[in-house]
Amino acid sequence: MERLKSFPGKVIHSTGFKNGKEFKDEHVLVVGSGNSGMEIALDLINNGAKTSIVVRSPEY
């Protein structure tokens, strides 16, 4: 993920996520649709983040 280094925004792994309050009114991208990703996305939405989710494929 070479280009990730030049991304100006905040990048965190699910293990570093505490709660969605700090992302209120911000655009957030959740990568992955596993249990952690979906729980984090729900918390972000419930706390006012503008949340998008991307998944690798439609099949699980």
UniProtKB/TrEMBL annotation:
Enzyme Commission number, as recorded: 1.14.13.168
UniProt GO molecular function: flavin adenine dinucleotide binding; indole-3-pyruvate monooxygenase activity
EC class (word): oxidoreductase
Annotated GO biological process: auxin biosynthetic process
Alphabetized InterPro entries for the sequence: Auxin_biosynth/cation_transpt, FAD/NAD-bd_sf
Name of this protein: indole-3-pyruvate monooxygenase
Cited PANTHER family: FLAVIN-BINDING MONOOXYGENASE-LIKE PROTEIN (AFU_ORTHOLOGUE AFUA_4G09220), OS01G0273800 PROTEIN
Pathway info: Plant hormone metabolism; auxin biosynthesis
Alphabetical list of Gene3D superfamilies matching this protein: FAD/NAD(P)-binding domain (3.50.50.60)
Keywords: Auxin biosynthesis, FAD, Flavoprotein, NADP, Oxidoreductase
Species for this entry: Trifolium subterraneum
Keyword Chloroplast assigned: no
Cofactor: FAD
